[in-house]
C-alpha cells in the first residue's frame, strides 16, 4: 500500500477511499443511458432543453443542471448548425420590397 501512496503521491486515507468506491457503479449511469438514447435519436443535434422536453414527454423529471452535467461528463456535445445563407438573402430582398410598398 505504501508504494502506491508514494508513487501516486496520495494520502493513505485518500487511497483507501478511492479503493472502496472504485468498485461502485456510478450514480448517473441510468440517467446517462436515458440522455444518451435521446441524444443519439436526435443525431447529436439535441441540446439540454430538447432532451429535457423529451424526458418530460416520457413522464421523467430531471433537472436541467443534471442533464448539462451528464452531457459534459460524457462528452455529448451538440453540433451547432450553420445559418442558412438563403434565409438572409430572402430577408434582404423582402425587406426592400416592404419599404417600397409603404411609400
Average pLDDT over all residues: 83
Task: List segments where confidence is low: pLDDT < 50 over at least 5 consecutive residues.
Answer: none
Q: State the shape.
A: elongated
Estimate nothing, just give the exact number of structural domains.
Answer: 1
The rounded Rg comes to: 25 Å
The main β sheet shows up as:
none
Structural class, by secondary structure, is: mainly alpha
The amount of beta strand, in percent, is under 5%
Quaternary state of the chains: single chain
- In whole angstroms, the N-to-C terminal distance is 86 Å
Q: What order do the helices and strands follow?
A: HHHHHH
Helical amount? 55-70%
Number of strands: 0
Number of helices: 6
Give keywords.
mainly alpha
Describe the 3D structure.
There is one protein chain. The protein has 103 residues and is mostly helical. The protein has one domain (27-102). Helix content is 66%, strand content 0%. It is built from six helices and no strands. Helix 4 packs across helix 5 (64-73). The mean pLDDT is 83.
Amino acid at each position: 500500500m505504501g508504494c502506491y501512496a508514494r508513487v501516486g503521491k496520495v494520502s493513505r486515507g485518500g487511497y483507501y477511499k478511492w479503493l472502496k468506491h472504485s468498485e461502485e457503479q456510478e450514480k448517473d449511469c441510468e440517467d446517462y443511458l436515458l440522455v444518451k438514447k435521446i441524444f443519439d435519436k436526435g443525431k447529436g443535434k439535441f441540446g439540454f432543453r430538447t432532451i429535457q422536453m423529451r424526458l418530460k414527454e416520457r413522464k421523467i423529471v430531471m433537472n436541467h443542471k443534471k442533464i448539462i452535467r451528464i452531457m459534459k461528463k460524457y462528452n455529448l456535445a451538440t453540433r451547432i448548425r450553420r445559418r442558412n445563407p438563403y434565409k438572409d438573402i430572402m430577408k434582404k430582398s423582402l425587406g426592400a420590397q416592404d419599404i417600397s410598398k409603404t411609400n
